[in-house]
Design brief:
alpha+beta; 6 helices; about 15% helix; single chain; DNA Polymerase III, Chain A, domain 2; eight-stranded antiparallel sheet; 3 domains
Length: about 350
């Protein structure tokens, strides 16, 4: 095996593979990547059985076919110490040699058989989707994932496909986030994608991306890369039951004004009290000793004051993903608070007030 490649190109591709290897046991084959030269293409693969990524670098120069398995962290460490410019990599007698001008590194390879990546899409469902919309949807819901929850289904994002829409959903039971995208797909399906996979999917999304899925796996085919992930086997909560269908109070507020007011009063305690009056909104910290407050002048069509207490991080997560005005809908002090902007809904459970 032999090929020549720019150091930066190789290093960037190796780092993209890093999340998919086993970093706990360097003696295991899953701590390695497979390097394969075939024709004029360089193919790099990594998997820990639960997740995997294969990326293809085309039109290589100074090339000879071959393959080997090598520990990824050792390879990245060796490549990162080199200067910018071309690197020549050769394999002889199970030793991978990295040369750059007068510098040379020899690395031992692994003889173990490399695991097969799951990439058979023949019997899988597929989704062709606007990748900008999908990326924005994932970005808006990712803060609602709770990977440490004993209910494993809450450690991922739900893709709920129905009525020609893809609903992207996350919840930690205190906050529910839903974003929907129009899709040309007349089926009903639900899959739960682990947080780790969702993060990596965001990095791969491009104009030519196709998503494949079945009951146990999801495959992302995008821009000369194929990623697979096991799905979470669980039943996601019925999120539609939590979304209020009517409201006693419905106000249009400015995201920047509310965000700045919350930042002004938030201290060690994230809880914030918000009181709506006919001509102003009072925002204050809910701390027992250190108290701060600020006011927003606004005309609201209400006859009596209405107060809610909530964890500010849930609202600021929503506000940080939008611009301009949004709607806030409420019914009672101890009932869910609905925040809405276009296709994005965030439902925040209030801090219960004892009478």
């Amino acid at each position: 095996m032999k090929f020549t490649i720019e150091k930066t190109t190789l290093e960037n591709n190796l780092k993209a593979l890093s999340p998919f290897v086993n970093k706990r046991d360097n003696s295991n084959i899953t701590s390695c990547i497979k390097i394969e030269v075939n024709g004029y293409d360089l193919v790099l693969s990594a998997t820990d059985y639960e997740y995997g990524l294969k990326t293809n670098i085309e039109n290589m120069g100074n090339i000879e076919d071959g393959l080997c398995n090598i520990n990824l962290s050792t390879l990245i460490s060796s490549i990162s110490r080199l200067k910018a410019g071309e690197v020549e990599i050769t394999l002889n007698n199970d030793i991978l040699t990295i040369k750059q001008k007068r510098s040379k590194v020899n690395l031992a390879t692994f003889d173990d058989e490399f695991p097969k990546l799951y990439e058979d899409v023949e019997n899988m469902n597929s989704i062709k989707i606007d990748c900008i919309e999908l990326n924005n949807s994932i970005k808006s819901v990712i803060s609602g994932i709770d990977p440490n929850n004993p209910k494993i289904e809450l450690g991922g994002v739900l893709f709920d496909i129905k009525d020609s829409k893809l609903n992207v959903v996350s919840t930690d039971t205190k906050c529910l986030i839903v974003n929907n995208i129009d899709i040309d797909l007349d089926v009903e399906d639900k899959i739960i994608i682990p947080k780790k996979s969702i993060v990596e999917i965001q990095k791969l999304l491009a104009d030519d991306t196709i998503i494949y899925y079945d009951d146990t796996n999801i495959i992302i085919d995008s821009n000369n890369s194929i990623m697979f992930s096991r799905l979470i086997n669980g039943k996601f909560p019925d999120y539609n039951r939590v979304i209020p269908t009517s409201s006693k109070y419905n106000f249009t507020l400015n995201a920047n004004e509310i965000n700045e007011a919350i930042k002004c009063v938030t201290g060690l305690n994230n809880n914030v009290t918000m009181t709506f009056s006919s001509n102003e909104i009072k925002v204050e910290s809910a701390e027992d000793k250190n108290n701060s407050e600020t006011f927003i002048d606004i005309n609201l069509d209400i006859d009596e004051d209405f107060t809610i207490i909530f964890d500010s991080k849930f609202m600021t997560n929503f506000l940080n993903t939008i611009t301009g005005d949004f709607n806030i809908k409420m019914n009672d002090v101890n009932l869910p608070i609905l925040l809405e902007k276009d296709n994005l809904k965030t439902i925040v459970m209030p801090v219960v007030q004892n009478n």
